Task: inverse folding
């Protein structure tokens, strides 16, 4: 990948953004694999899909890392909130929701 400053045209810049988007998608696919594994492990440990303290911990970590890297922490939190909610829905699809088990 080139540095943004090394892109001389919008076409070059867009190609780099598209390549980076591909890497981000690959990382999200990798993360989803861990979510699927969590859905398999949590029932054996008596854990629900949604664990509020863990959600808070992940968001705090993301905000801190974003701020340290120069990314708007509010943006990072909004993105991760969506990712977390999707992940919980994915786990509940495998495990069943809390309401389904009650």
Result:
């Amino acid at each position: 990948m080139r540095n943004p400053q090394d892109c001389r045209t919008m076409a070059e810049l867009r190609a780099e953004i598209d390549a980076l988007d591909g890497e981000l998608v690959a990382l999200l696919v990798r993360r989803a694999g861990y979510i699927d594994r969590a859905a398999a492990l949590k029932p054996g440990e008596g854990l629900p899909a949604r664990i509020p303290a863990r959600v808070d911990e992940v968001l705090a970590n993301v905000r801190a890392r974003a701020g340290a890297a120069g990314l708007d922490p509010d943006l990072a939190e909004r993105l991760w909130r969506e990712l977390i909610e999707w992940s919980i829905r994915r786990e509940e699809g495998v495990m069943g929701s809390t309401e389904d088990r009650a």
